[in-house]
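Shipment paperwork, digital attachment
Item: protein structure file
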Amino acid sequence: MARSGLLKIASLTLALGLASTSLGAARAADFNALDTVSIKVTEWLPARGEYREWSALSGNYAVSANLTISIPFLGEVSLADLDRDTLSARISAKLQERMSLPEAPDVQVQITQRAPIYILGAVATPGSVPYVPGMTVRQAIALAGGLFRGAGVEMRLERDAITTAGTLDDARDRANRLRAKIHRLEQEIGAEGVTSEKTESVEGIPADLLSEEESIRETRAQVRQSRIKSFQDRRDLARDQIKTFADMKTNLDRQIELTRNELKDVNKLVDRGLAVAGRSTGLERTLTDLESRRLDLDLGTLNANLAVNESERGILDVDTSFRIDTSNELQTTRAELDKARRDIRVAGDLLREATLIAPSNAIERNGDLAVNLEVYRTPWGGQPVRIDLDAPLASRDTIEIRLDTNRGRTSSVRAEAQTATP
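Attachment content:
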């Protein structure tokens, strides 16, 4: 391998578009758009001998794109060309004027967070990085993970291979677990007399996974059987009640018949004056009570029949829900298995690319890499200035990095090699 992975800075172009004429002549203002400014307002109370903080005004304020902040009671306050001391004095004077205070309140201004630095292009993690005063280009690139190492760098290829191998192992393990689950679901459906459209082979499935699924199957069967047993017990109890009520009604019907016959005979005697009317009234009362008890038995029998029907329906619902839920779960699991198998194929192809194809291509692309770097500053007027890599950055600066392969040199190296080959 000739000079694989060699990074050579071929060109360095640093242009600060619409920046100031020089770093030394940059504006004296402290604030930038997207900064966060902390303001604390306090007032001295001579009568109490203490300071009171104005909580309604104190807090953090975000600087807008047009360099303003919105402060309660004061509205929009421009920060353009201001430093912290000037802003503090201006807010204090405006508050004294607006509130008609005898003394101006004390206002403290701090910049709690600067706008970030933006890094684009060939770095490990492009995007924004927190700004720290005095930060250099090198430090900003380091916070972004350093320069991107293109194909041909063994460390990246090895990392990709390790990551992909782990992904492949995870996909295979997931596929085996799904296959074991499908086997268990098919057994459950088969036990219900439902034929599955296809059967998953257990070949290649680890025994411990099959054992886990078998334990799940037994637990699910126990839970299902327990629910069915509960409904069966309620049904059997209701049937026993129906039988008991039937026996009670038979005895009660006999008593009602005897009471009616006795009442008929007593009424005849009363009509002849051979018996008192009170005896007839007592028998009527007894007959009414017996008939009321007979109605209660009929109502109890009806409720018991309803309980039997509900129990039968509950047993049917348990079986139906089990079949439906198991079938749906089987269908979903098969879809997950198809996805896992696709993941295995993709991970296998990526692993082959990381271990065979990419290293081979890296050798073919054996040439130097040119690093082209440009820095852009948020416009504040003036002429662009040229800085080196160790020059301090300002918040909101944008760094753009490009890696270009010197293919012409690579081609010439190959040509020389081919010419030298006998």
